[in-house]
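note to self — DONT lose this again. spent like an hour looking for the file last time. sequence + predicted structure for the chain T wanted, 684 res
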Amino acid sequence: LTIPETVIEKERSVVTKEIHQRGDIPDVRIWELFYATALKVHSYHNPVIGYEETIEGIESDTFRVYYREHYTPDQFVIAISGDFDSETVMSRLAGAFSAYSSTGKDFERGIQDPPQIKIHSATDKADVNSMHFMMGWRIPPAKEPTSPGLEILAEVLGGGDDSRLYKALKTSGIVDEISCFTDFNHDESFFIVYALAPEDNLEDIKGISLKIISGIIENPPTDEEFKRAKQRIGNNHAFSLQTYWELSQHLARWEILGNLEQGISWIDLINASEKDEIPDLYSKYIKLDNYTWVALLPDHKTYPKIADAPFESKTPVKDVLPGDVISTQFNNGAKLIFKYDTASDIVGISVLAGLGQVMEIPENRGIGEFTARMLLKGCADLDSTEFRKKTEELGLRITSSGARDFLNLSFEIRKDRLRDGLEILSKVLFNPTFDESEMKLVRDEITSEIKRRKDSPFNLVNDEFFSMIYGETPYGLPVEGTEETIAQISRDDLINFHSLAFTPKNLTISIVGDLEYSSWQPTFNKFLGRLFHSVRTDETMNFDYPIDKISPTMYQSKTLDLPRAQISFNMGSIALAADNPDYPALKMLVRILGLRLFDKYVYELGWSYRMWFYMPTWRGPSPLMFEMGVAQDKFSEAKSGLIDAMKEITAETVSDEEFGNSLNYILQSFHLGMQKNIDMAYNL
C-alpha cells in the first residue's frame, strides 16, 4: 500500500475534525471521561481516536512505519463463516497472503494499571438536558474463567425491567434509564452501571446503586432470578449471531480477546455457572471503596427558542416451496405475507399497523409511539412482570415502535416455540391493558428522550429541517411528539387510538421462517384470523391524511446559533413517495451523487467526516436531503459545492462504470440487510 503525502494530510484533517465533533456527542464523552478517570497508565486511558495535538504532530513517515510493522499477516485474525468449501478458501487465503512477510514482532506491551485502592471520580459539563452517569469496577479480562459469572451478575442487577436496579431506580422515577453490563476487553475490563437522570438525583443514584449491588451478599440471586438471567443472556446471544457476518465478528473478537474456545462455548459456560459463584465474584471484585464514577452534567446554558415553521384467509395456498413469497388476505381484511425460508430456525414476524404518525392530529402528536410502547407493558392476563418472564421463558424477542407511516411490532422466536409465541403475540396485539402505573413510566421515558434529542446537534437540525419542509403536516414533527402533547395523552386516548389503528383492514402481518405453509395455515388462521374479530371493525378510517397532496415548499433557511465545534448542516426538499414510478431512478441518482460528494468532501478535501445524501422510503413524499458535519470556515464553500453538484449531475451523462458501481452498492446493501428473517419480514 502506497500512502501519498496528500492523502495523509487530508485524512489528518478529517480525523482532527472528528475529534472536535466527538465533543458534541454525550455518549462518546461519558465513555472517554470514564476511561480517562478509571485508568492512569494503561493505553485504554486515552481515546481510541487520539488527541488533536498528537494527530497534528505525527510525522508522515511515522504513519508509514506503523503500517508496515503492524499490518502484516502475523497480526491478522481472519474469521470466515458460511456455506463454502473450506479447502478452496484456505488455499485462496494462502495465495493472497503469500507475497507478504511477517515481522515476527510482539506488540504486547504488558502495561497494567496499579491496583485501585480508592474511589476515582470526575464530572464535566456539556450541552445536555439529562445527566449521563457511569459507575464501574475493574474486573479480570474477557479471557479469564470469571467472565461468565460476572456476566450473569450484571444481568441480575440491571439486565432487564425486572432487575434489581431497574426496580429500585427506574420504577421510582429516580432515573430515566438504568442498565448494568460488563465491558470486556483484552486487558483492563469493567463492570458498569450506566444511568440517564436529572442531575439533582446524582447522590441518590450513587447511594441506591451501591446499596442494591452490595445487597447481593445478604440477598443472593434467587433461583428464579438466576434462571431468568441465563435465559436473557442465551436469547440475546442467539439473536445476535443470526448472520454469517455476526458469527465471524464474534469469533474474531474472541480470538483477539485471547480465548477463542471461551467465545465458542460462551452459552455452555453461562449455563454451567452455579448460583453460589455469584456472591463470591461480588466479594472478590466489586468493592465499595475502589470504584470509579463519572457524570456528564448539564451546563444550563440558554439557547434561542426555535421559531415555529411557517406554515380466515380468502385464498388457501398450497405447495409453497423454499424461497417462495405469497400474499393472502383474511376475510376480515387483514393481510398476510409469508416467505418460506430454510436458512435459520429463527422465525421472524413483523406486524405493521397503518398509518402511524399519519393518523395523529396536532393535539395528540406522539400517541402512536406511546401506544406502541405500551403494547409490551402488560396484556390480557399478564401484567408487565409476568409478560417479561413469559417472553424470557420462550426465548422470545419482541419490540414495538412508532414510525412515520405505521406502528411496527417485531417478533422473533425459535421455530419449535412458535405456537406458544403466537398466543403471546395475539394478546399483545389485541388485549393490551394500558396500566396507569406503566403509563407513567413510559410517559416519563418518552419525555426524557424528547429532551435529550436537543443534546444532539444532528437530531436538533433534522427536527428543524422536517418542521420547515413539512410544516403542520404529520411528517413535520418527530415520531415521539412533543413534551406538551405527551403530557396530556390519557388512557382513554390510548385505548381509542389502539382500537382504530389495529383494525383488521389496517394490519399487515409478514412471516418469514422455515415453515411449511400448508401445515401452519390452520395455526395462522387460529391466532391471526379468528382473534381479529375481537377488534372493532365498523370504524371507517377518517385519519388518512392526504399525504399525496404534500408538495415542496418555497425556499427557506434558518440558522440555529449553538456552541458546537462543527456546523451541522441539512439541505433538501420534498421529493417522491415510494410508489412513484420515478422513485427507483431517483434512488439511484441519490446513491451516485452521494458517493461523489462523500469522496470529495471527506477523502479529497478533508472538510468533513460526516457527509450523507439520502432519501428515506416513506408512504408519502419523502425528503431528499443532504446531511453534513462541516468545519465552520468551510461552510459557505461546502453549501455552494452541493448546489453545483446537483446542477452538474442533471447536465451530464453518468458513466457506465459509475452507474454500475452504484447499482452494485445498492444491491449489496439490500442483500446484506436481508440476512435475518425478521429483517426480511419487515421489508416485505
